């Protein structure tokens, strides 16, 4: 088996941005292999969210390639990427507050409408809190509950890879720990995960591998726990 066949996601030299000229990603590369949790860390404004959006097809790459399971998806739009198996949970506004938990799940299962009922039941079994709250409006959930709902929405299309943008942002330390536990449990069930995290050291500790992104360029990369104990990384992210 060639290396490429053993890779789930391959991002190679991606250039992307928002305005006509401005480049945010300046030739970024990364890989996710089956079974991995991979974390992207880096300073504010480094382009981490832009990278996830470019992988999800919400921002178009101007150069470079994005491959999923060996297939080139660089020119696919967001729907095409979702069909190819990329699930994306954005950092903000990731649930519909005026809709119930059940409705949020239903509208998220757009790929296979015939499977919506069964998928929602699976998710209620996995996350009993969602079952208890299925008739509650999403805006009444706590921050941690809302992130579980957002993640469950991302699972409604049974993705091959789940992208999470700062899943623990704004959560209490206890809620953040619980969410990290939920992420690890999902991954142990076989789902590869690529996440951006501000809680960099905690994220690296549960990650197979990590990448440090600085100013739209790859900086450091390595095994998650090794990066988490690396003095330079600790100085950057603990300010010590
Ligand atoms: N929708 C947008 N339009 C224009 N510029 C944007 C947009 N979103 C982000 N940016 C800019 O892109 C850069 C990287 O942002 P982002 O990817 O959100 O960084 P990070 O997630 O690492 O904090 C920042 O300079 C930000 O201001
Ligand atoms: Mg961001």
From TrEMBL:
The keyword S-adenosyl-L-methionine does not apply. SMART domains: AAA. Signal peptide: none annotated. SUPFAM superfamilies: P-loop containing nucleoside triphosphate hydrolases (SSF52540). Residues 9-240 form the ABC transporter domain. It comes from the Bacteria. GO terms for molecular function: ATP binding. Keywords: Amino-acid transport, ATP-binding, Nucleotide-binding, Transport. CDD domains: ABC_TM1139_LivF_branched. The keyword ATP-binding applies. PANTHER family: BRANCHED-CHAIN AMINO ACID TRANSPORT ATP-BINDING PROTEIN LIVF-RELATED, HIGH-AFFINITY BRANCHED-CHAIN AMINO ACID TRANSPORT ATP-BINDING PROTEIN LIVF. Belongs to the ABC transporter superfamily. This is Branched-chain amino acid transport system ATP-binding protein/neutral amino acid transport system ATP-binding protein.
């Amino acid at each position: 088996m060639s290396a490429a066949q053993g890779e789930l996601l391959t991002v190679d030299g991606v250039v992307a941005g928002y305005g006509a000229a401005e480049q945010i990603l300046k030739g970024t590369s990364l890989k996710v292999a089956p079974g991995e949790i991979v974390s992207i860390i880096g300073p504010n404004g480094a382009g981490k969210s832009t990278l996830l959006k470019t992988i999800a097809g919400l921002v178009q790459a101007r150069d470079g390639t994005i491959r999923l399971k060996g297939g080139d998806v660089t020119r696919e739009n967001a729907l095409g990427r979702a069909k190819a198996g990329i699930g994306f949970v954005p950092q903000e506004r990731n649930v519909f507050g005026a809709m119930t938990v059940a409705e949020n799940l239903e509208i998220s299962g757009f790929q296979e409408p015939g499977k919506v009922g069964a998928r929602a039941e699976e998710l209620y079994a996995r996350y009993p809190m969602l079952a208890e709250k299925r008739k509650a409006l999403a805006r009444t959930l706590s921050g941690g509950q809302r992130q579980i709902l957002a993640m469950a929405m991302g699972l409604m299309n049974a993705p091959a890879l789940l992208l999470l943008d700062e899943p623990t942002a704004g959560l209490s330390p206890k809620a953040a720990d619980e969410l990290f536990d939920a992420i690890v449990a999902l991954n142990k069930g076989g789902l590869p995960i690529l996440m951006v995290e501000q809680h960099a050291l905690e994220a690296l500790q549960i990650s197979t591998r990590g990448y440090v992104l600085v100013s739209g360029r790859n900086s450091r990369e390595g095994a998650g726990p090794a990066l988490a104990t690396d003095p330079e990384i600790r100085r950057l992210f603990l300010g010590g």
